[in-house]
């Protein structure tokens, strides 16, 4: 049985990306076309670094200088 797929677009290159229906409400992924780091949040795919910057301005909008983060 094939899973039902949901089509979304990368916010940077607008490539169609397919996910299984029923995925978690928040997750990260890379665009298979442009390699942009994406986050699925608030019901849509967003550029990860811009999203993080909108939540906390200490996060660089382009992600430069970030190596890793620890989530507790």
* Low-confidence parts: none
Q: Estimate percent helicity.
A: 10-25%
Described by strand count, sense and barrel closure, the largest sheet is: 3 strands, antiparallel
Order of helices and strands: EEEEEH
Total of DSSP H or I helical runs spanning 4+ residues = 1
Count of domain modules:
1
Class from secondary-structure proportions: mainly beta
Shape, per Cα inertia axes: globular
The beta-strand count equals 5
Describe the protein's architecture and organization.
Helix content is 11%, strand content 32%. With 72 residues, it is mainly beta. The chain has one domain. The strands form 2 sheets. The chain has a 3-stranded antiparallel beta sheet with strand order 3-4-5. Strands 1-2 form a two-stranded antiparallel sheet. It is globular, with a radius of gyration of 13 Å.
